[in-house]
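Quick start: what a row looks like.
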Amino acid sequence: MARILIVDDSPTEIRKIRGILEKHQHEIITADNGADGVAMAKVEKPDLILMDVVMPGLNGFQATRQLTKAAETANIPVIIVTTKDQETDRVWGTRQGAKGYLVKPVNEEDLIKTIKSLLS
């Protein structure tokens, strides 16, 4: 299936999401902060990125903006996966270039459906 980069500073969240994705035969790579996520995306060229927002240093909105503006990563869809569920957060995420927005705790069916829609 797809190579998916999970960018999240919570080992628990990474473990949960990895479990869902591996069950659906996806290959997983991870980064635990925004800066490492951007760097890893440029090197690894994943098919899709799942991006947390609240992280130390470069937050998920900033990392998403960098990824969607850089020529070498602009074609990689980013789905924001966060606890921030206000409409203003969703709008801001979309403005940064995110193609999807899911609220934690993430629902397996919604996650897989969103990934499939962006990779088809």
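That is the whole record. Strands lie at 3-7, 27-31, 48-51, 78-82, 100-103. The radius of gyration is 13 Å.
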